[in-house]
Amino acid sequence: MVQITKSLSFIASAACFSTMLFMSSCSKENAVTPASEATVNSSSNLREGVGGITLAPEIIPTTEGTTCYGCAAGWQVIGLPFFGISNTQYLFGDITRPWVYPLDVPPTGTGTFLTIGAKVTTGVLGYSQTNLKNLKEGKKYKFKFSVSTSSIKTLDGETPLSPTIALHGAINTGPIELGNNPGKWITKTVTFTATQEIINGSKKLIFAAWPKSPYIGSSPAYANIHIPKHAVVEIN
């Protein structure tokens, strides 16, 4: 009887000891605590923008938006009423005005863009302009954009193509030839330095289009420009 009691006492002691070891092991495992929220946030680069990178404020207004005639948020159109936001299938998004040469989505972004028209008969070229903002004086920047031309059908036939466009003023590209590539996007990257004239708004970015000359018809020649969000980046 004494022997049985001793055996039971030993088994109980062993079980208790095993339980203590197990609890100790669990306690050590649970002692590893997750990183604090502040630590996670400090290494996540704020989790904003593209790829976790915080994007700088816009420098040039985007030409993307809801299609419409006579609208161009952030852009002022001078001289002619022929302007608006178009898409790859229709001038100003109007299903009664399909492009003769449908466009692909611009390489620089989405399928909406600014369209302006120009007419030789008015004596005024079609052009739009905007101010550049959030620049640092003396810094160099890179600007990427896409341009194209197409036409629509009217009672007089097809509207003319705009063979040449240019950006000038705050950023100068020189003439960009479009006429031999209707419906095709041409993508350009240019660099410029922020001067005080650009920063204070006295020197604007101007997008200008020319119709083929001589042209005496009543329909404008249309040119498109696509400027995506954050199209300008600082490079030094």
Task: Provide a descriptive summary of the structure in words.
This protein has about 240 residues and is α+β, with helices and mostly antiparallel strands. The protein has a single domain, classed as Sandwich (Jelly Rolls), CATH 2.60.120. It contains 3 helices and 14 strands. Strands 1, 3, 4, 6, 11, 13 and 14 form a 7-stranded antiparallel beta sheet that branches. It has a 5-stranded antiparallel beta sheet with strand order 2-5-12-9-10, with no helix packed on it. It has a two-stranded antiparallel ribbon with strand order 7-8. A hairpin with a 6-residue loop joins strand 9 and strand 10. It is globular. Keywords: Signal.
Write the layout of secondary structure elements.
Layout: H1 2-30, H2 37-42, E1 68-69, E2 76-78, E3 83-87, E4 112-118, E5 126-130, E6 140-150, E7 153-154, E8 157-158, E9 164-169, E10 176-177, E11 186-193, H3 196-199, E12 205-210, E13 221-226, E14 232-234
Antiparallel strand pairs: 1-3, 2-5, 3-4, 4-13, 5-12, 6-11, 6-13, 6-14, 7-8, 9-10, 9-12
